[in-house]
Amino acid sequence: MSALLAVNWEWELRGTLIVIIAVAVLPGSIYLILATNMGGRLGFLVAMSALAGWMFILGGVWWIYGKGLLGDDSTWRPVDGATIIRDSGRLSDVGILPSDEPFDPSGDPTVDAAAVQDALQSNGWLKLDPALPSYQQAGSAGSAMVESSELFASGEFTVVGVFDKGGERSPTFWDGRIDFLAFFHEPHYSVVEIAPLVPQRSEPGRAPARAVIDTSRPHEYVYMIRDLGQKRVPSAIICILSLVILLVLCWLMHTRDRRAAANRAAPALPAKE
């Protein structure tokens, strides 16, 4: 008894018990009622068909509206082997700029930063407005990658630009106004430009000094790719599997009804004397 009282009712055990009790009380009670009227086998087929049909409808609603059981959300991921480019001359090597037009740094960080921005925009990269949510999301993701790499600590750098490329959806119709069938996506890339800051000395009781970009140090670039995630995958799996189970159960009930009808239509055997 003491061992039973010592059980720690954490969410794992509590959640398991809730699922077991809910299945036993809700679908189980319906099955008991059907079994008393139709028999055990037919009652099971009817009860499971109703449950599969309900799960199919529920999974479809979750799939359409992105509710219920959800997977991972979309997020920015580092490009393997080329996450942080510290030398602007390597932008062509990692595929950010065309390989046939390599960028040659001049040695002046301010001039090189402006030249890189012009080169990016002339090669299809879109410079985002800092007021856009996409700018903030990409900038935050790039800052987190820089801090996790321990190249800079928080407050030692600032984001000065975000460039976006790719991510087109297809197929679309009517100049992109109809896109509910656009299930295919091109790879979506982002380049976050960061600039080192001049070290500031903080004094107790005084407001921190205003951040100043260190013009003697080159800008660095964070290369990322968009991971679309799998937000609707769990609900899609539930919807599709429930539909398959429902169709199989309906086929089994249809087969049973045909067999029963054939047996009823068969001539009765003569009684043995």
| Outline | elongated
**Segments where pLDDT lies below 50 for 5+ residues?**
none
Main pleated sheet: 6 strands, antiparallel
Gyration radius (Cα, Å) is: 31 Å
Number of strands: 8
Q: What is the arithmetic mean of pLDDT?
A: 86
Structural class: alpha+beta
Number of helices: 6
Percent of sequence in beta strands: 5-15%
Order of helices and strands: HHHEEHEHEEEEEH
What is the CA-CA span between the terminal residues? Answer: 67 Å
Question: How much helix, percentage-wise, in residues?
Answer: 40-55%
Number of domains: 2
Give a structural overview:
With about 270 residues, the chain is an alpha+beta fold. The protein folds into two domains: about 10-70 and about 235-255, no CATH class; about 75-200 and about 210-225, no CATH class. About 45% of the residues lie in helices and about 15% in strands. It has six helices and eight strands; from the N terminus they run H-H-H-E-E-H-E-H-E-E-E-E-E-H. The chain has helices at about 1-5, 10-40, 40-65, 110-120, 135-150, 235-265; strands spanning about 75-80, 85, 125, 155-165, 170, 185, 190-195, 220-225. Strands 1, 2, 3, 4, 7 and 8 form a six-stranded antiparallel β-sheet that branches. The chain is elongated, with a radius of gyration of 31 Å. The protein starts with a helix and ends in an 8-residue tail after the last helix. The mean pLDDT is about 85.
Present the secondary structure layout.
Blueprint: H1 2-5, H2 11-38, H3 40-65, E1 75-78, E2 84-85, H4 109-122, E3 126-127, H5 133-148, E4 157-166, E5 169-170, E6 184-185, E7 188-196, E8 220-227, H6 233-265
Antiparallel strand pairs: 1-8, 2-8, 3-4, 4-7, 5-6, 7-8
Helix pairs in contact: 2-3, 3-6
